[in-house]
Amino acid sequence: MSILVVGSLAFDNIETPFGRSDDTLGGSSTYIALSTSYFSDDIRLVGVVGSDFGDEHFQLLRQNGIDTKGIQVVDDGKTFRWAGRYHYDMNTRDTLDTQLNVFADFDPHIPAEYREARYVCLGNIDPELQLKVLDQISKPDLVICDTMNFWIEGKPEALKKTLEQVDIFILNDSEARLLSGDPNLVKSARIIRNMGPKTLIIKKGEHGALLFTDEGIFAAPAYPLESIYDPTGAGDTFAGGFLGHLARCEEINESELRKAVLYGSAMASFCVEKFGTEKLAGLDLLEIEDRYQSFLDLSRIAD
């Protein structure tokens, strides 16, 4: 099934209590696409980079089966850059530097051969750009969307217009409370689902994730890891694994949605084990299935 991913590509300088990594390949669409690539061989990526985005980065994406023809290259510009430092608990971080560079003028133009994509995943870019992408797509089967506090606070009306066209919405707990105006996540979910998306996922970091549908609520645990080096991109990686599983299903139903949450959680657990996209670039399906089984075992009660 064809999958269109639209979002940012970036270089990150990351500091955690356990190390540092500079000029690390990142960006929402990078994490989403790499994560999804283990489930599908038809991924089309749309974004913008500068001339500093080298052939090795394109090669990394392509060798994972990701079509990069939709990536715009601005010859006289620089790629989006972000620098951040994580606190000891790894749940909070300080942004040290943000350089939008060519991403500041990102105007997504979807190539003609991408417009028939069955599945669309919108990274946490400007909701006006998300709407522009959807205007160029021909009747996708499924639209998944992410966002962030910056857009909830800065462009709430545009975001709400986007949500009217979204099937599945993914955000974290603080974003859910901000968007809904309610501190209770169950109430927040009801409020947000009334904005359009009938399926909602609220990520809770080290406390797992909640899935809200018409069928009820499903709670997925987080994977207990001894070593967490870098949580950057874990949410986007979750979205990629979640979408990847759904894209290979013959039918999307409540059971498959719940499995997708566990696959998303499994992929996110791999992401945090190394800096940036390093771990994502070297997985195999057996590892992923083993980790998925481990998630099943976490909450299983013996007969």
From TrEMBL:
Keywords: Kinase, Transferase. InterPro entries: Carboh/pur_kinase_PfkB_CS, PfkB_dom, Ribokinase-like. One of its GO terms (molecular function) is kinase activity. The keyword Transferase applies. Pfam families: PfkB. The keyword Iron-sulfur does not apply. Residues 26-278 form the Carbohydrate kinase PfkB domain. PANTHER family: RIBOKINASE (PTHR10584:SF166), SUGAR KINASE (PTHR10584). This is Sugar kinase.
